[in-house]
Amino acid sequence: MDCRYYDEGRCRSCTLIKTPHLAQVESKQRRLETLVAEARPGKPESTLWLEPLISEESGFRSKAKMVVGGTLDDPTVGILDPDDRGVDLRSCPLYGSDLARAFPILAEFITVARLEPYDIPARKGELKHIIVTVSPDGELMARFVTRSTESLARLRKHLPWLLDKLPRLVVVTLNVLPEHRAALEGQQEIVLTELDTLRMNMGRVVLHARPQSFLQTNTDIARRLYALVADWVDEGAPTTVWDLYCGVGGFALHCVREGRTVVGVETAEQAVIAARRSAQDMADAGLPGALEATFVAADATAWVRDKPAPDVVIVNPPRRGIGPDLAAWIESSGVRRVVYSSCNAVTLAHDLRAMPSLAPVRGRLLDMFPHTEHYEAVVLLERA
Question: pTM for the full model?
Answer without folding.
Answer: 0.94
